[in-house]
Amino acid sequence: MNSIQSNSLANTTFVRPATFFLNGLSNVPHAKYYYLFLSLVYVVTVLGNSFLMCTIYLARKLHTAKYIVVFHLAFSDLCGSSTVVPKIIDTFLFEHQDISYEACLANMFFVYLFMSMQSMTLLILAYDRLVAICFPLRYRAIVTKPAMFLIIGVMWIFSVTYFSVMVGLVNRISFCGSNVIDSYFCDHGIIYKLACNDISINLLMGKMTFGLLMCTPLILIFLSYFFIALALLKIAHGVDRKKAMKTCTSHLMLVAIGYFPLISNQIAALTTSFDPNTRIFNNSLRQIIPSMLNPIIYTLKTEEVMESIKELYKRRKINTAIERKIKCERGN
Fold first, then answer.
1. How many CA atoms lie less than 13 Å away from 214 in the CB half-sphere?
2. Residue spans of alpha helices (H) in the chain
């Protein structure tokens, strides 16, 4: 009996299409204007995150454990948008909607990888604020540069391993019917629904992905701020309490921007019949808009970053003046 089962498993063949067709927004008039809007958002995202990363790199004042994580968030935002928006523009503006099977799996891997990175980086920033407010005297001993590099390194190893397994398991799916994906990228949750064989393992991975990618970091962030709130209540002076709260505002805004649309989408999907076009609008905006706003919020709402930008600007002006003076002296 065991030999018959092993032979049948060995002889199992999986039907794979040569290409998938990304359907995107269907029957929406002037949809191209939306894709043009996304391309403008992408330009702002690239400029904003590049500017923030350059500021952190150039300003010695920002060479701290916390800003290693902020730099990583900007990098994740930049890469996350770069895996989504250029592909949207190529697919829907230039009508290259067919995507090869291998390219589709690669697209799936990188989209989910950087979504995971963005989510978990927000969790690390919550940990940073938790230690800073609950254990202020031990902050510099606990939140160190090596510790942050180690946490980020472990995060990368875990995410790359997990999503490699998730995407690899798609190869166990047989696609006997449609190859049309009603999304703007190779969405794992939509692809495994096109299967005509057992997808229980893929369904499990999909649920685990949502739990690990979104729910677990969000729950841990809420717990962090619960303990932060308890610590703030113990602070006697109102001025000190406001100062401590002010250090959390940037992070809280990032969490709200990143997670509120996700929660809204899930509630809408569970309570109402969700139109596919509405889902595509919501998901694409949720993936792209936070990446644009994150560097703007961290630049405008964080005094250390603003002061560093002013110092770099002054230094640049002084260096330019010195260079002009040297050129004038050489000319004379």
1. 18
2. 2-10, 31-58, 65-88, 101-134, 139-142, 145-168, 188-191, 200-210, 216-233, 238-271, 276-300, 303-331
Conformation bin of residue 100: beta by default, left when phi > 0, alpha when psi is -120 to 50: beta
Crossing angle (nearest 10°) for helices 200-210 and 145-168: 150
Cα 126 to Cα 190: distance, rounded to the nearest angstrom: 32
Q: Between the CA of residue 143 and those of 1, 117, 118, 139, what are the distances in Å?
A: 58, 19, 20, 6
User: For position 86, what pLDDT does the model report?
Assistant: 92
State the average pLDDT over residues 97-105: 93
pLDDT digits (tens, 9 = 90+) for 253-274: 888 888 887 777 777 766 776 6
Contact 323, 330 (CB under 8 A): no
pTM: 0.88
Task: Compute the distance between CA of residue 97 and CA of residue 88 in angstroms, rounded to an integer.
Answer: 9
Choose among 319, 295, 301, 299: nearest CA to 309: 299
